[in-house]
Every structure is written in C-alpha cells, then in structure tokens.
Amino acid sequence: MRELISMEHEYETTDGCMVRLLCTDGPGDYPVIGLVGEYIGPYTWEPTGLQYRAAIHPSGLDLVRTDAPPRIQTTVYINLHRTAMGGIEGYAYDTPDRAAVLRSVECIGCVAAPLDFCEGDRP
Asked: pTM here?
C-alpha cells in the first residue's frame, strides 16, 4: 500500500523528473498539486501520488519519494519447535550456520525468511 504524499518529503516522478509540491489539500479526487521539472502548468495527483487512479499501467508521472530511507534486504533463519500446547514457535538467527549449530533435537525444521524493509520500519 502506498503512503500518503506529504509536504514534508521530497518527490520525483517515476520518469525521474524533480517535483515541487504546491499543496496536498487541493479540491476533488486529486488534491496533490505540484510542478514537474521545467514543464508549464501544475500537475495533480491522488493523495497517494498516483496520477491516474484507474490506469491499468503505472504512469511515468506517478510520485516517488527521493528522501526515503534506504531499503534493507536480508534473510533470517528460523528454527521451528512445537510448544507444549501444540503450537509452533521459532527462534531466529542471522546465518544458516548459526541456526544449525543452535538447533535442538526438538527442532521440527528450519525456514529461511527473506526480509525487505526500510530502516525504522516495524514489522
């Protein structure tokens, strides 16, 4: 799900043109108003930065944050154990070797879980 456009962030179009936002509270279904690159006249977007809500394909004028924190991609390895109540719990490790060394005899399996998030995100 896309986050709402905010005057506190910087944006560019998906085509790479810088955008200067004028407001995010304009009238109608496209309340985000801004100037794109050197083009004449203002452009409008829906609150999430999409130029055309009903478009089948993304527009080159959709907004993306340029000041977004970098994405972190990693994998954790989770040893799964059955609980006394019949459920399953897991213990996560940063490498498969560490998960293997710390695997107990009660372990019913190890799952590699890829993670992709921004710094500061909470799961």
From this structure: 0.54
